[in-house]
Structures are given as structure tokens and as C-alpha cells.
Amino acid sequence: MALPRSTRPVRVIRLYWPVSVETIVAMTTGDGDAVARDPALVAMFAIVRADNALGDFGVYRSVVELAPGWEFFTPAAGARPTLGTADTGQASPTVIVTLHVPADVRDDVFDQLLDQLIAAHPWEVPVIELTAAALLLRR
User: What would the DSSP string read from start to end of the chain?
Assistant: First the structure.
């Protein structure tokens, strides 16, 4: 399918990252600095703000979209959850982090970035989605 406009191909990384209830409340009431006070987010932002392709929009670097949310889950008997206990339903305040990476970043470099994000993720089983997309450009 030919795209009718100018676009920039990207890889999209969507991460579901746990935060404190205080962070969710602060974010939803307009406190953008709350992310700098949440230890789990500080680790993720350190990776994004390093000299790399995460959030690369050309004249803008380290672009991150955050959306507040909740993760609901029940750990199985063999799990070692960061939050909750086996066989008991749990809710976790979570931010949905979206990062864009230029599609032409070499696969080995991209894999290293993913490895860093996975290593910093506090969950036993990180929830990270990868998709390909095209961003629209101004005419």
C-alpha cells in the first residue's frame, strides 16, 4: 500500500511500567515532575536520555509519551511478583511508555537498547510491545 503523504518509518516500543499510586495521582493532576520522583521511572528515563536512538525525532531527542493506567493480574504459584502474592488478584498503577526509534537503526543496536530496557524493568515478566509504524511528516 502506497502512503499518500510523506512519512518516516519507525519502530515503536510500548512499555508498561509500574509506578507508585502517588505518581499516578500526581501525573493526572498536572504534576509533570512526578516522573522524576518515581525510582522505577528514573531508571527508564536514564536509558532513554543517554546518547542513543530512543525517542529520536531528528531535531528532538529523548521523546517519550506517557499515559497513566493500571495493570491487573494474578500471579501463578511459581511466580515471584514484584507486587502481590500467588493466586491473589492484584492491581498495579502503571504508565504506558511509548518510544519511537528510526527504522534504519541497525538491528544489533536496537537489540542492545531493548536489553537495557528489559534489564531496568522491575517486573519479573516485563510487558513490552514492538511494532513497525510510519510517522506522518509535515508537507
Answer: ---SS-EEEEEEEEEEEE--HHHHHHHHTT-GGGGGG-HHHHHHHHHHHSSSSTT--SSS-S--EEEEEEEEE---TT---SSS-TTS-EEEEEEEEEEEEETTS-HHHHHHHHHHHHHH--SSS-EEEEEEEEEE---
pTM: 0.89
48-83 pLDDT, tens digit per residue, is: 999 999 999 989 999 999 999 999 988 888 888 777
The torsion angles phi and psi of 85, rounded to 5 degrees, stand at -135, 160
Instruction: Give the separation between CA 126 and CA 124, rounded to whole angstroms.
Output: 6
Q: Give which of 67, 51, 64, 65 is closest to 19, Cα–Cα.
A: 67
Note the pLDDT tens digit of each residue in 11-23: 999 999 999 999 9
